[in-house]
Amino acid sequence: MKKQLAAAILLTDFRITQNINSIKIAILPLCLVAFLFAFPARTFVVEANAATITVNSVSDAGTNGDGLCTLREAILNANADNQSNVDCAGGAGADTINFNGSLANQTITLTSPVGQFSITSSMTINGSAAANLSVSGNNAVRVFNVSTGVVVVMTGFRITGGNGNSFQDGGAIQNFGNLTLNSMTIQTNTARSGGGVYTAGTGNSLTINGGSILGNSATSNGGGINGTNDSIVNSTNVTVSGNTATNNGGGIFVTGGVTLTVTGGSITGNTAANASGGGISSSAALIVTNASITNNHADGSGGLGGGMSLGGGNATITDSTLSGNTSRRGGGIYFISGTHSITGTTLSGNAAASGAATSGFYGGGGLVNSASTVNVSNSTISGNSSGCDCGGGGMTALNGGTTNLRNVTIANNTASAGPGGGINSSLTGLSSGTTNVGNTIVADNTASTNPDVNGAIVSQGFNLVRTRGTSTGYVASDLPNGSNPLLQALANNGGITQTHRLSAGSAAIDAGINALAVNPANGAALTTDQRGTGFPRIIDGNGDFTATVDIGAFEAPLAPTAATASVSGRVVTAQGRGIRNVVITMTDSSGNTRTAISTTFGYYRFEEVAAGQIYIFTARGKRFSFEQNTQVLSILEETNNIDFVADEQTVFSAK
């Protein structure tokens, strides 16, 4: 007993360390030591709080003991959960690294001999306190490597000048853990694959909320982002712009069991120089919702899909716009294989083989379906073009691919040197695809021959093909050749995407069949037209007291029983930038209310408003207040300038 007591007394001069989840616990008091001797079989867990470490220097390596805490020293302490670098607070779990506000507008530049920042422990790196802070690889080294099994959050700073070199992946970040990027800018980095960010590994994830992926490059695949090997990639309200890949996926490349989800945001101005997918190249599961995919390019000799190239996995594209994209084959989308769904979406102004009246191309200004199953409903394919002698201004179907069209409008597309301005399903030397068409408009397209349809379709009935030419496959319920849909120009008619409004007297109004108004991907009834909430799919548009679906993507408003008008406007910042997802409420003199939600560009619209009444219009947004959030107006006729301007202070705060 005396020996045990003496031993206990001597132990007070030493550090007693219990390693629980890599957390070091310091000197224990004498009484606790004696207690442990008395009960040696028990285990006691002592929790420690994670540390907050503040970086106050833009130096890279730093000198231990110089009083300056560098980012490298902070990460080393957080990795080791100790204070081996005495200038920074000691790490203790999933630490948070902040930056002193004095580092605003400055750059932390890595030095080549020291190399990348290696993150081996869970942590948060938050640059919010140092506005416009950058971390640069000096165009010589990758900036961050995230190890397997760790959870890392980065917020509010820029990563630039990262270089994975031509034989390594991930210029700014190589991720093998679970990484979240909040309001980050990943700009002007380069690597073999994933010029901006490379992520890989089963169950590992990359989540990006807001921010930008700008001007990165890859000598292989994925100029902005590369995801592979069963990882998960989620992008919400992110701008992916100006990135370049020598091969596939100028903006984003995913393959190998990855699940990619893109919600909101824009993918614009990216280039796949020699292969496929200027905006996105995917052979994995893909979900795109409310996104803008514009002005991307895959114009090299092997170019497939200026906006997107999709093969292998299944893609679901909803409430999105693909516009201004170019490629040798499939200006908007090229479907290689798999089963895919498009709904509530507009493909407009895309171009295939522009100016190349040459054999060997497949056309398909809007899309090409080669050996895939593509289900399209409540969507518009308009104003696309093909410059080759293969035709197919709107779409091309070949190689046994099956395309199912329900309540689609295909209009104003051009095949300048070949047949089938709207649809081409007959290409010389290639096997045809199958195009099943129901409740669909194909009209006002132009081509060298057969302006609307070239080859055969399989009509499911109740279609309006204005100029059939020599095309075949029609049934008795299809409207007669020459029927005029009286389409108005592509425009914002309410909802998220642009549509062609049906003018009064259109042959398409109430001319469809309700049973075909379904999503061919799953058989679900279409409850709204392309514009979405607030625009029912099946109504009485001709005043015969029978609710019948219109042909095409747009449902004409209720047949008026009294004088009515449409009312519209825009929600904008003081600088004129559109604000989306603002709820506009219209209240009549009896207290009845209707609501509309502003689109990506700030537009909203109410149809069939009874004229001659006074209405109260109010605007409500989650992040904005308005200089005049209530307007009282007498509606006598069509009114299109009821605008709401956000208060300057709340616009600044929202940023």
Topology summary:
Layout: H1 2-11, H2 30-38, E1 52-55, H3 71-80, E2 95-99, E3 107-109, E4 117-119, E5 123-126, E6 134-136, E7 144-146, E8 151-155, E9 158-160, E10 173-175, E11 178-182, E12 185-187, E13 190-191, E14 197-200, E15 205-209, E16 212-214, E17 217-218, E18 225-228, E19 232-236, E20 239-241, E21 244-245, E22 252-254, E23 259-263, E24 266-268, E25 271-272, E26 280-282, E27 285-289, E28 292-294, E29 297-298, E30 308-310, E31 315-318, E32 321-323, E33 326-327, E34 333-335, E35 339-343, E36 346-348, E37 351-352, E38 367-370, E39 373-382, E40 385-386, E41 395-398, E42 402-411, E43 414-415, E44 423-424, E45 434-438, E46 441-443, E47 446-447, E48 453-454, E49 458-461, E50 464-465, E51 487-491, E52 499-502, E53 538-539, E54 548-549, E55 564-572, E56 583-587, E57 593-597, E58 603-610, E59 613-620, E60 630-635, E61 644-645, H4 648-654
Parallel strand pairs: 1-2, 2-5, 3-6, 4-7, 5-8, 6-9, 7-10, 8-11, 9-12, 10-14, 11-15, 12-16, 13-17, 14-18, 15-19, 16-20, 17-21, 18-22, 19-23, 20-24, 21-25, 22-26, 23-27, 24-28, 26-30, 27-31, 28-32, 29-33, 30-34, 31-35, 32-36, 33-37, 34-38, 35-39, 36-39, 37-40, 38-41, 39-42, 40-43, 41-44, ...
Antiparallel strand pairs: 51-52, 53-54, 55-58, 56-57, 56-59, 59-60
Helix pairs in contact: 1-2
